[in-house]
Recover the amino acids of this structure.
């Protein structure tokens, strides 16, 4: 197998893991990130606890589903949302029964963000890994779960009949020692900027690649924990993974260039913080939806006293995926078709819903006035 170019992996360099970076460049970006974080937290403090909890529910649902999607695993967003809602003590109009796997993944993320001050021990990390692979398999392949890998990890591609080696992680016999060093550094209290620590931890964990599978998802859970430490709150109002998914190609390109480069990780830090800025800026959309919902019920609560109708409006305000038909409504709300048809017709007459399409494509949407 041919190694790509004359690359030397970052963990093979003398001095590793003593990373370096351009302090001036990074300080400027860190200042911008901190201002954005402060702005979002400041805005959210103006609202009641219920609004904050719902914004957090939306952000964490995105974080969990998008982190898995980066790795090609699609989680049912309704199940993730239901599992999170129970832990956040939020009543949902569309409640589903999550699988044990989704319950476990949600437990890991909730543990990371709610208990962000707790040290990250090997046992805790193994627990997170176990819930990612409850069957002991990654797809059809049996893997080691809740223990470090004992074999090589290589990133390869094929060029004709040749295999090209792009990256080889730390040798398996060095994983235990390097993870002990990583965890000691991560838990140590020092003068290091907490945001800087989050970015370095993400990269360093990926460099070591301590498990047979799930390293990317664990790196992002660790990132969530450290971002909570940086903000000194378990409240999450934006999703880093959702932004990484949008920039996935660049994410992998920068990781590849950094892990086969020098000890200077300015490129990675710059990209990480720029991505984080964009993620925080996108949180405006999450907050907007929550406030739209709160504002609607403040104005119209007395006009829609019927519970089923309130559930219908909430499903649409929460961003129902696909066309909202009477058949889907009956199934979700577990009520008869005639009852749902009456409820929907009444909401159309009152101007809260609009009827779109014809025949089998007939569906309902929120009126333009409500969405505005």
């Amino acid at each position: 197998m041919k190694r790509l170019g004359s690359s030397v992996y970052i963990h093979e360099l003398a001095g590793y893991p003593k990373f370096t970076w351009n302090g001036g460049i990074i300080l400027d970006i860190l200042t911008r990130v901190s201002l954005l974080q402060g702005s979002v937290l400041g805005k959210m403090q103006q609202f009641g606890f219920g609004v904050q909890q719902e914004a957090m529910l939306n952000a964490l649902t995105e974080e969990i589903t998008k982190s898995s999607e980066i790795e090609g695993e699609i989680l049912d967003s309704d199940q993730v949302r239901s599992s999170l809602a129970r832990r956040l003590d939020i009543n949902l109009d569309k409640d589903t029964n999550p699988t044990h796997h989704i319950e476990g993944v949600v437990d890991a993320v909730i543990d990371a963000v709610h208990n962000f001050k707790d040290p990250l021990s090997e046992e805790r990390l193994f627990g997170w890994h176990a819930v990612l692979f409850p069957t002991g398999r990654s797809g059809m392949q049996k893997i080691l779960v809740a223990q470090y890998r004992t074999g090589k990890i290589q990133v390869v591609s094929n060029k004709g009949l040749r295999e090209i080696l792009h990256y080889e992680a730390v040798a398996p016999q060095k994983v235990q020692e390097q993870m002990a060093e990583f965890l000691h550094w991560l838990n140590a209290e020092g003068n290091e900027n907490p945001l800087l620590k989050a970015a370095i931890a993400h990269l360093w964990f990926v460099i070591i690649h301590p498990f047979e599978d799930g390293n990317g998802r664990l790196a992002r859970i660790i990132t969530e924990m450290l971002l909570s430490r940086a903000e000194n709150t378990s409240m999450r109002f934006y999703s880093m993974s959702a932004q990484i998914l949008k920039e996935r190609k660049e994410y992998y390109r920068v990781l590849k260039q950094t892990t086969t480069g020098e000890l200077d990780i300015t490129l990675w830090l710059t990209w990480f913080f720029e991505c984080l800025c964009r993620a925080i800026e996108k949180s405006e959309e999450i907050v907007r939806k929550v406030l739209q919902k709160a504002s609607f019920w403040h104005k119209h609560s007395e006009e829609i006293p019927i519970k089923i109708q309130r559930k219908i409006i909430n499903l649409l305000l929460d961003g129902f995926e696909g066309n909202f038909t009477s058949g889907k409504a009956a199934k979700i709300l577990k009520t008869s078709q005639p009852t749902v048809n009456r409820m929907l017709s009444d909401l159309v007459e009152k101007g809260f819903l609009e009827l779109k399409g014809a025949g089998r494509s007939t569906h309902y949407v929120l009126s333009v006035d409500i969405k505005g």
About this structure: The longest strand covers residues 162-168. The chain has a mean pLDDT of 90. The first helix runs from residue 23 to 44. The beta strands are 2-3, 137-138, 141-142, 154-159, 162-168, 353-356, 363-366.
